[in-house]
Amino acid sequence: MCIRDRSGTLPRSAVIELSGETLLRYVAPIPNREECHSCHDPTRELAGILLVDHSMAEAHEHLQATLYEMLVKVGTTVLAILLVLGFLMNRIVISPIQKLTAAVSRLADPGTADLELESLKGSDEIGQLARSFEEMARRLRASFRELEEKERVRVSLLQRLVRTQEEERKSLSRELHDRFGQSLSALLLSARVAFAADGTD
Questions:
Q1: C-beta of residue 44 within 8 angstroms of C-beta of residue 36
Q2: How far apart are CA 27 and CA 86, in angstroms?
Q3: Partner of 110 for a Cys bridge, out of 6, 15, 138, 144, CB 3.0 to 4.6 A?
């Protein structure tokens, strides 16, 4: 069987199906040289064609094994990359955000001395956010101190006002007792004297 391509030359190799098996057929032309003319027609260009068939089943199995091995390597590499990215994402983004969230949740406590955000003060967005929250915490602490001072002054003024009102009430009570009490006693005594003078005791 002579296999030729469209240009009429012999192809070097071809894949063929023979008896249900896929073969790689290599075709090599054998040129008709002078030393071959003794047994071959010297007018012919070729002395013959060498055909070599190689089963593709073995190559197919090797290809599948190589593909499986490559998929395992690629899968392992992708998994390793994802694990490293997850670790880095946790270390660079998630962990600082959790620390920042925990620190910010303590802002409501006026006794919080420091948010402890020193480890988060990088040049990235989380560092900027940490600095903003620390500034907010500093202002809140100053506001809390100012509010406590105002409350202390208010309580002191209220106590002083209550004491002053109590002293005025006592003073007024003494004055009413002393002044009006004496006047009433004098008036009562005068009335008794007047009644006694009338003789109607």
A1: no
A2: 55
A3: 144
Give me the residues paired with residue 31 across strands: 46
DSSP the chain: -----TTSSPPSEEEEEETTEEEEEEEEEEE--GGGTTTS-TT-SEEEEEEEEEEHHHHHHHHHHHHHHHHHHHHHHHHHHHHHHHHHHIIIIIHHHHHHHHHHHGGG-TT------GGG-SSSHHHHHHHHHHHHHHHHHHHHHHHHHHHHHHHHHHHHHHHHHHHHHHHHHHHIIIIIHHHHHHHHHHHHHHHHHHT--
What is the per-residue pLDDT across 14-26, written as a single tens digit (0 to 9) for each? 778 878 888 888 8
pTM exceeds cut of 0.70: no
